[in-house]
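Hello support,

Our group uses your service weekly, and this is the first time we've seen a run hang past the timeout. The protein is Precorrin-8X methylmutase. I'm not sure whether the cause is the sequence or the server load. Input pasted verbatim:
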Amino acid sequence: MNSNIVTEQLTDAGRQIEHDSFAIVDSEAGPHRYTEQQWQVVRRIIHASADFEFNGLVRFHADAVAAGLQAIRRGAPIVADVEMICVGLSKPRLDYFGVATHHFIADADVIALAKAENSTRAVQAMRKAQQLQLLDGGIIAVGNAPTALLEVVRMINDGQIIPALVIGMPVGFVSAAESKAVLSELNEIPWIVIDGRKGGSTLVVAAIHALLALAEAEQSQAD
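Update from on-call engineer: The timeout came from a worker crash unrelated to the input. Re-ran successfully.
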């Protein structure tokens, strides 16, 4: 049973329900090819969605988990495509590591530029994050907007940014699967993706919470 203090549920009853849920996921998920740490991310995504198809749909760059844990431990910023991700993340868990979250999708200047350039708010939001120097060494979390993910990949390929980790899980029918496929072709930048059309902000939150729990567990072992 997990001995984490900060990244666990706050009450004994809540912790027991969560542990029982994870036990059910483990017993019903069937075989998988994930490492132990990768499985902690996948099982939490399954737990958040009650969808066992994510056993296999979630894919990891070989360095993804290690890079994510290192970024969290040094308090790297998380830049999300939408506010829902920032709202969904546990503030006490983030504060424990000194991690701040950012989103710019609703900013007036972002909206104005999107209209002026006939692009999307998601694209302009990522450009603003880059201008604020939040993407270099940060965790980029995309759960809604494929155009945000495509813009991130463009900036990486153009040598504008070197993020610590890109979590690419946009949901939808237009460019969602394609944007994740393009991200997963990158070799130098760690990534976590959900193949196909499935995804969403809730699943990004689940993945980050799993990384936070792993980071706390590693820190506890080190102490």
